[in-house]
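The data are quoted verbatim for completeness:
=====
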Amino acid sequence: MATKKRRRAAIAGATGLVGHELTRELLDTGNTEVHLLVRRALGDVDRRAVVHVVDFARFDALPPLDDLYCALGTTIKVAGSEEAFRRIDFDAVVAVARAARASGATRLAVVSALGADATSRVFYNRVKGQMEAAVSELGFDSVVIARPSLLTGDREALGQPTRLGERVAIAFTAPLRAILPAGVRPIEARVVARAMVHALASAAAGVTVLDSAQLQSLGATS
């Protein structure tokens, strides 16, 4: 029996909630060569992963790739301004996707957000929607766009600042979780990561958009 070829996958945003879980998920499959694209050297890294310190504003050539998982993202408050937010959530995402495509990647999975809409009057949603449109035009055979609702996970354990708005929203919705629609209830980062890996592995040609309810379902069963 022929040995199945190992996929070569890069993860951008590997130090974040979803990126951390994507790294774990892909490494544990055992059939993926995992490359982590990071802004600065990491201290404690799984030896099975290859780390690349990159400038997300100006890319040199990436290693040959099959897949890109992009979990780059911030908030306007953390970024400090709308302009700084756009540099990460649009410019950096599109730049890494373009670099991965130039390195041979044919499949892309990217984290967007609930409510993403390129025509929205809400700046955050508009930027996310514009990002989706931009990466969908880069020539990937398959693009999976994940639109999770509020993400949950241990940011402190990853050395990230906690987000007051997230804590308040999670605490407020916790008693209502059983009756909240799956599309809007908070979702664990590990569930999103599992869903993205599962979806990209079986993705059809073209663009697939997964809302939070679909992510919950895929992530729970994959």
